[in-house]
Prior knowledge:
Shape: elongated
Largest sheet: none
Number of strands: 0
Radius of gyration: 18 Å
Structural class: mainly alpha
Number of helices: 9
Amino acid sequence: MYPWLAWELPGNLGFKGDKAMILNHIWGLYAHPKEEWHTIDHHHESLNYSLVHLLFIALIPSVCVFVSATMIGWDFGTSNTIMMTTQSALIMSVGMYFTLIAGVFALAYLTYWMAKTFGAKPNFTQSMELAAYTATPLFMTGLAVLYPSPVFLMLVGLAGVAYSVYLLYSGVPIIMHIPEERGFIYASSVVTCGLVLLVCIMVGSVIVWSWGLGPIYTQ
């Protein structure tokens, strides 16, 4: 009924090999993105590799936010440095981690769902690869939180978003095996869906905070 769920966990995931592959893909997406997309498309390592990559890369912003909120503090131009309690920062970081993963899954499913409209016939593994590797630069910007300057964070965030969008536009024709002209429209549709997901996540965060689960700051 749901062919995109038809995958099995192997008995041995081979995490050492997965980590090496993750590092190779991260470097390749920055150094030679189009060639790396062709490498990803050629191997199609299985859904598990994309999942391991996603689980690893989503740790970067989550852990960095925790460290910054509890050990460094945030300075928004005021005389006081804003810091959070350890428990509150941990809850926020764990929530961020699972939200980022869920967001990538949702984007992958939307990419898979829209494929037939643009003449593509991917399996869910291909859609997941596209979503996970496209999100990599955006998640990598989480490192910037360790230097919590508002201007610096804004510039790094914009650069991360811009490069993720570039990876999406360059990767869609390769992973989905469609002409570049059709891939441009496809990628634009995915970007629109991504913006809608972002708005949904922001609204959801506001709702959760209104339930009394918002951040607790130290005095």
